[in-house]
Amino acid sequence: MVGHNLQFDLRFLARLGFTPGPVFDTMLASIVLHAGHKETTGGRIRHALRDVAKRELGVDLAKDLQTSDWGGRLTPAQLRYAAADARVLLPLAADLQAKLAAADLTATADREMRALRGIAWAAPIAVDRDRWAALARDADADVARLAEAMDAVAPNPASIPGMESRNWNSPAEVKAAFAAVGVALTRTDDDALAAVDHPLAGLVREYRAAHKRTGTYGTDWVAKYAPTGAVSPSWRQLGAESGRMSCSDPNLQQIPRGAAYRGCFVARSGKVLVKADYSQVELRIAAAVSGDAAMLAAYKDGKDLHALTAAAVLGKPVEDVTKGDRQLAKAVNFGLLFGMGWKTLRAYARSNYGVNLTDAAAQSYRAAFFRAYPGLRRWHVREGDRVRGFFQADPAGTFEVRTRGGRRRILPVGKKRAGEGGYPNVTEALNTPVQGTGADGLKAAIALLWDRRADCPGAVPVLFCHDEVVVEVDAPSADNAVAWVRACLIDAMAPLVAPVPVAVDVTVGRTWGGD
Fold it and tell me: What range(s) does the DNA-directed DNA polymerase family A palm domain occupy (predicted)?
């Protein structure tokens, strides 16, 4: 079956009982072929059927009837329009397949086509509307409480009775509030506030988080996305140039972590949710990519890399590592994986893990981390030297990176910061092979779930969230589903990260949050 944006068609056809065999999606093929390429004008390459047909075949497809009324009896003009869209697909597919082969991207495209059927198979997931509404009320109360607390720390001198509160959503007022307590800020984003040692910074960050919950995840969210008690998001299979998926209407990948909001996504009556999550997959992929001997040995021996890192940076035996030490190690491992500097590490640790570091500690931990994993450091240096060489030759040029699954991405040699000159694009050169390989593995896992669906009858995926897959299944089949999901995820990722073993954490519960 050949089509353009086939996920759309397959979802409709599934309602009629249609089960697809092999598929080829010309839109996905175009995205795989041109990942990272830019138009001559500098804009992103478009992948609508009209754009792809024109670019690859030189064929102009008329689109004047696209928004006409297709709900009644079709006119001869509409039939000709539809036929033209269908007629171009076979020559377009043949052209793209040849170009994919020439670019050594056939395996990547095949993986996407196999995953497509599994993604189109995904079912809606039920939402506990009452539980969601209670969270929205709690968030409203938190906004009011935190605004009052901030006003107490930094009163507004220009206030009039009854209007004492600042506008805490205004960056200018936030800067003024910090100036009133003796802290000069040039930026008020979360990373900047995470680096500020003053109680007001923590309150502002909490307030913003609560305010986002009221705006993004308030009662309107349920009314808009789950009016019938279930949500059916749009899964964009190639949502990022790295190969990662994205999600919209609503974006379930951005639902806050933890049991509160995720606990609102529930299994239907008589069913359970089986949640499978790759354990430390980016660290495992980085170990395979960099060849770091210490990381490879740790994973081969089944050791906890977070505990090892904590022991290395804190200078204590592994057996003495505490839960708090391990939390610190997560910040260090994930923060430094792609070469973060110590100043950024300090803000990252506080912002993402609630870990407060002094300047001296951040510098010390960074140095100790790379002493513990010298192979990782050598990989950073190699890639940095390579990109800097490209940058010196042509700052406006591009270069190619590949994942361990063969996916290609074209990256700009240089990047720019606002108000500053260009600098070599080292970070994307490091993170794309890792994150892209993770995407390769997840797509292969989704494909295996589809291919092996007869092994767990009645099970259906409902969520794809970064390195995680959630499946809904009849409660009596939970044990079988656990084994089925775990095997699919391990078998898919293992060839991509060898010799590093793959680990998958699987839990069963009534909700996505685990309860």
Answer: 258-477
- What was the pLDDT predicted at 42? 74
**Alpha carbon separation from 139 to 12, 168, 195, 213 (Å, rounded):** 38, 16, 25, 6
Q: What is the per-residue pLDDT for 457? A: 97
Per DSSP, 61 falls in state P
Residues of the chain within CATH 1.10.150 domain(s) are 283-422
pLDDT at 92: 98
**How is residue 177 written in tokens?**
């509030």
Cα distance between the two ends of the chain: 41
CA pair distance 309, 326, nearest whole angstrom: 8
**SS3 assignment, position 309:** helix
pLDDT for position 441: 98
238-282+437-509 CATH pick, 1.20.1070.10, 1.20.1250.20, 3.40.50.970, 3.30.70.370: 3.30.70.370
Give the number of C-alpha atoms closer than 13 A to the C-alpha of residue 22, restricted to the C-beta side: 3
- CATH code 3.30.420.10 region(s) in the chain: 2-103
- Token pair listed for 335: 């923060």
Would you state the pLDDT for residue 371? 97
Angle, CA 236 vertex, CA 231 and CA 242 arms, to 5°? 140
**CATH annotation of 283-422:** 1.10.150
Report pLDDT for 225.
95
Structure confidence at residue 164 (pLDDT): 59
C-alpha closest to that of 52 among 89, 7, 22, 82:
89
Q: Would you say the C-alpha torsion 343, 347, 349, 354 has a positive or negative sign?
A: positive
Domain with CATH 3.30.70.370 in the chain: 238-282+437-509
pLDDT at residue number 102: 98
Amino acid 39: pLDDT? 84
User: If you compute the radius of gyration of the chain from its CA atoms, what whole number of angstroms results?
Assistant: 25
**DSSP readout, 339-376?**
T--HHHHHHHHHHHH-----HHHHHHHHHHHHHH-HHH
Alpha carbon distance 383, 337 (integer Å) = 13
Q: What CATH number has the domain spanning 2-103?
A: 3.30.420.10
DSSP percent split of the chain into helix, strand, coil, nearest 5: 55, 10, 35
Q: Provide DSSP, 199-261.
A: HHHHHHHHHHHHHHHHHHSSHHHHHHH-TTSEE--EEETT-STTS--EEESS-GGGSPSSHHH
Give the residue ranges of the chain where pLDDT is below 70.
158-164, 418-419
* Structure tokens given for 355: 């870990």
What letter would DSSP give residue 446?
H
